[in-house]
Amino acid sequence: MKEVVVAVCTPDLSRKVAANCIERLKATDLSLAELLVCDNCADSDFSHPQTMKNLLAYAGSRPIVFIDDDVYVDEPDWLSIMLEGARRYNAAIVGCVHTFESGEVNHVGAMIYRDGTTRMLRELPPDCSTPYVPALSSALMLIMEPLRYGFDTGFEKYHHDTDICLQAWRQGSSVVCLPDVVIIHIQGNYASEVIDVREAFAKDATYLMRKWNDFAASGLFEREALKPFATMASETNWEHRYAKATLQINRSTGNAIEALTSLAAECPINWLAGSAHYHLFRLKGGTQHLEKCLELYPEHNQAKVLLNKLKGEL
After folding, report:
1. pLDDT tens, 29-69?
2. What superfamily would CATH give domain 4-206?
3. Which DSSP symbol is given to 114?
4. Whether CATH 1.25.40.10 fits 236-313
5. 156 class by beta-carbon count within 10 Å (0-12 exposed, 13-18 middle, 19+ buried)
6. 2: how many CB neighbours lie within 10 A of its CB?
C-alpha cells in the first residue's frame, strides 16, 4: 500500500483541462502515492463535500491530497516538498501558491474575518514571517490525518475547504501555504459553465458564517501563528460587500443600486469601487459611471468597450 493518496476530482474526465491536469500530474514524482481519479460524469446530484468525505474515510490513517481537475502541477518533487513542509511546520493541512496561466498570483490562501466572512488572499500581511494562513483552497490540499477531520455535507459546493481548515485551528493544529510549490489554477473553468454559481456560493458563505463567526470573532486570531492577520480580520471585508451587492442585481434593482452606490462611495479598493460604478451604469445608465470606473480601474475592458461605443454614437 502506498504511503499517500492523491485524489483528482473531475465533473467530466473527457474534458481537455482534466486530461491535461492528469497528464502533467503523472509527469511528477508520484512514487509515494496511490493516484485516484474520481469522475462524477456530470451527475446533477453529485456532492463534492460528500465525495471528499468518502475519500477521507478511504485514506484512513494515510495522508491525502485533493486536487481539482483545473489545476496543473509541474514541480517534479511537489509531493515530497509538501509532506516535508507539514512536518517542518507541524501542520495538519497544507496548501501552496496558486497562479493564473499568466504567472500572476491567484491566491496564497483564504482570509477569514471576525464576522465569519471570507476572501482569497493574494499576499500575506507585511509582518507575516511564516507561511501559516487562516484557510486554504481544496483545489490542492494535503490533509495529514484524515481521521481527525470531516467535510461538512451541509455545504453545497463551496467553503467546505475553509470549514475543514477551521476545524484544524480549533483542534489546536495549524494550516500552512508553502511558497516552495507553485501551481497553475484555471479558476472558474467549471463554474463558468454552471448556472446560479453565485447563488450557491452565497448560500454556502452564509452557512459558513453562521457556523464559525463565534470562533472567528474570539479564538482564531488568538493563535500565535495567526496574530499577523488579527488587524486585517477586524477590517471591512470589501470583497464580501461587493459580492452581496452584485447578488442583488437579479433580485432587486433598487437594492442593488443602493448597495452599489454606497460601495462606490466608500470602498478604498479601486478595482472594487470601479466595478461598482460599472454595474451602476448597467442598471441605470450615465456615462459618468463608465468614466469613473475607468478612472479607478483602467483595466476594465467591458467599460472601455461600452464607453467607446457611446462616444462613437454621439
Report:
1. 999 999 999 887 666 667 888 999 999 999 999 999 999 99
2. Spore Coat Polysaccharide Biosynthesis Protein SpsA; Chain A (3.90.550.10)
3. T
4. yes
5. middle
6. 12
